[in-house]
Write a structure and sequence with these properties.
7-stranded parallel beta sheet, Rossmann fold, 8 helices, single chain, alpha/beta, binds NADPH dihydro-nicotinamide-adenine-dinucleotide phosphate
Length: about 250
């Protein structure tokens, strides 16, 4: 991709899953990559797996002060942030009637509030510097209703609207877009789905399989690159065709 070499990239929730694949991809593109995550063990693991990382930082995106401290610490490292991959997120599979207020808050705190905290810190630096790109992690769950994920669905719908609003206010200095994957096989999915459930998901997907973290990483790389210089304020779906037909998807 054009224009990624030497760029400073911060990836939240980057210690495993899609975030870790994205870290590897940006390193391949010649970028300087820092991973922020709250999972200490996963951070140690990725430090061993990707020794070319410029740094890792242990922080919880749902804590606004911790995010501010993390960015201040990183200011000593980089000469300015170029790309934020705002990826950290959680999901808990539960019927609507069983979601507790605490669980609802936890999902919103990470998936929506955390995204706002990191985005604002990043945008402040990009506006004061030479601009940049912010890519927010949405989901097809933000576009359609899915059973047992009312909190997650609502949080991801919020991310899509946050993306549009940020794109309007931060243009022309900062581009902001949202990536909406469907089913991607990561530790998050493996924790919530049995092999039987995963096979049922595959059968709903026209391309006949779940997505791979590396495929989402490739979309992030394109959207962050100069090849996407005229793209801002939109969401991009990568789902193997899952939501293309609505009810018509099921023959
Ligand atoms: P994983 O659970 O595999 O990885 C997410 C990483 O983010 C974990 O290391 C996790 O740590 C970390 N994290 C979670 N909450 C926080 C937090 N508050 N602060 C810092 N780090 C945090 O998830 P995926 O790779 O599957 O998902 C990544 C993103 O992609 C999420 O936003 C998810 O909603 C989205 N997505 C995923 C899809 C999929 O099918 N996998 C589909 C569509 C969207 P810990 O282990 O402590 O939770």
């Amino acid at each position: 991709m054009r224009g990624l070499k030497g760029k400073w990239v911060l990836i939240t929730g980057g210690a495993r899953g899609i975030g870790a694949a994205t870290a590897a991809r940006f390193l391949e593109e010649g970028a300087r990559v820092v991973v922020l995550d709250r999972d200490e063990a996963a951070l140690e693991h990725i430090e061993r797996d990707l020794p070319a990382l410029s740094g890792t930082i242990d922080a919880d995106v749902s804590d606004a002060e911790a995010v501010a401290r993390a960015f201040e610490e990183l200011d000593d490292l980089w000469q300015g942030l170029d790309v934020l991959i705002n990826n950290a997120g959680i999901s808990v599979r539960k019927p609507f009637m069983e979601i507790t207020p605490q669980q609802w808050r936890e999902v919103m705190d990470v998936n929506l509030n955390g995204m706002f905290f990191a985005a604002q810190q990043a945008a402040r630096r990009m506006l004061a510097g030479e601009g940049g790109v912010i890519l927010n992690m949405g989901s097809t769950n933000g576009l359609m209703g899915y059973h047992y994920y009312a909190d997650y669905n609502a949080s991801k719908a919020g991310v899509i609207e946050l993306t549009r609003s940020m794109a309007l206010e931060l243009a022309p200095t900062v581009r902001v877009n949202c990536v909406c994957p469907g089913y991607i096989l990561t530790p998050m999915q493996e924790a919530e789905y049995t092999p039987k459930m995963l096979r049922a998901c595959e059968s709903k997907i026209p391309l006949g399989r779940l997505g791979r973290p590396e495929e989402v990483a490739a979309l992030f790389a394109f959207l962050a690159s100069d090849d996407a210089a005229f793209i801002t304020g939109h969401y991009f779906v990568m789902d193997g065709g899952e939501i293309a037909g609505g009810l018509a998807s099921q023959p």
